[in-house]
Amino acid sequence: MIVLGVESSCDETGLALYDTQRGLLAHALHSQVAMHEEYGGVVPELASRDHIRRAIPLLEQVMDKADVTRDAIDAIAYTQGPGLAGALLVGASIACGLGLAMDKPVLGVHHLEGHLLSPLLAGERPDFPFIALLISGGHTQLMRVDGVGQYALLGETLDDAAGEAFDKSAKLLGLGYPGGPAISRLAEFGESDVHRLPRPMLHSKDLNFSFSGLKTAVLTLVRNQTANICEQDKAHIARAFVDAIVEVLVAKCLAALKQTGLKRLVIAGGVGANRQLRDALNDAAQKKRFKVFYPELEFCTDNGAMIAFAGAMRLQINPDAAKRDYGFNVRPRWPLDELRVV
Ligand code: KG4
Ligand code: ZN
Questions:
Q1: Whose CA is nearest to atom 22 of ligand 1?
Q2: Which of 30, 148, 152, 295 is the most exposed place for a label (fewest CB within 10 A)?
């Protein structure tokens, strides 16, 4: 079965073709980072317009790369939510328009399910059940995953998402958008013992997170510096921020593994690309004897491959999940644990 995936929930347009027999055939991505950079964050209206411009040329690219004909495509999966309403509507209307024109069934996919299953696209695939830490720009959740569509929420952020904390703290340090990679690179030049930031909810005895205080602590440190804060000062603050957030994320993963008795941990979402987090998790995995799985770096952030793949997984369970019903609605807010195998 070959599934075409369409991702447009935020600031990346992603198209991909996944074959359940041969694996990922092709994927293509356009990132809008350069366009949003001057505004310091995603401008939803600009994002929607750009998805419209990019989707069809990207589709042509993946069709060429995969060397498949339209007839070979069995279904079209698109991100139905959560995300920016206008951006989601573009992807949904393109997917449904293509479905109608090519007489193919369509299927709305949950964006976070795409992230959650993205490590299964990598060479070494984790078996079910596993604990998943979903850390993206909009979400921070610990889930127990027993199979496709079987997700139990164990804990989540009470305020800012981890990626949001990276982006907002980076902004306070005058770094560009998106802030995660920038603050992570800067932290490499800072020392750990210059500043110490709080570890929010480290001892809360549950699996929830809270990151908004961390951003406020970064703001206080920045304000306490002299008027001309130098690059080295910024690097020390970046280091303190990364140390704090990584320690909390690792501690909560360990607590989730302990609570459930599971030995497999999957990291998904944009913040999963973070080098310091990966180093700390790999160390912990060795010491505590569990296995940690990551998506390929290019599939940590938003992409079409994870949507094509999640769609294919759903269709393998239930071939009728894709429909020739081209009226669509999007779900900008959509809790992942509402998903069931249908
Ligand atoms: O999963 P994603 O591409 O989009 C959402 O679904 O939100 O995640 C984007 C988030 C942004 O907040 C970005 O700053 C963060 O992932 N991010 C990183 C890194 N790469 C991306 N955060 C920390 N370190 C990174 N290397
Ligand atoms: Zn995402």
A1: 180
A2: 152
CATH number at residue 30: 3.30.420.40
303 C-alpha to ligand 2 centroid (Å) = 8
pLDDT in tens, 119-165: 999 888 999 999 999 999 999 999 999 999 999 999 999 999 999 99
Question: CB neighbours (10 Å) of residue 71?
Answer: 10
Query: Is 174 in the same domain as 225?
Result: yes
- Centre of ligand 1 to C-alpha 190, Å, is 21
Q: What percent of the chain has pLDDT over 90?
A: 94
Q: Which atom of ligand 1 is least distant from the CA of 178?
A: 14
- Based on the structure, what is the number of domains in the chain? 2
Take atom 3 of ligand 1 and give the residue whose Cα is closest: 301
92 & 147 share domain: no
143 and 247 in one domain?
yes
22-40 CB burial, b ≥16 within 10 A, e <16: eebbbbbbbbbeebbeeee
288 pLDDT tier (thresholds 50, 70, 90): very high
Residue range of the domain that includes 159: 127-294
CB count in 10 Å sphere of residue 100: 12
Distances, alpha carbon 155 to alpha carbons 81, 143, 184, 204, 208, in Å: 20, 7, 25, 11, 5
**Atom of ligand 1 minimally distant from the CA of 273:** 26
Q: What is the pLDDT of residues 178-187, one digit of tens each?
A: 899 999 999 9
CA 6 vs. chain centroid, Å, equals: 15
What is the C-alpha separation between 299 and 141, in angstroms, rounded? 18
- 340: confidence class by pLDDT, cuts 50, 70, 90: low
Is the same domain home to 145 and 110? no
Same domain flag for 327 and 256 = no
Determine phi and psi for 118, rounding to 5 degrees.
-60, -30
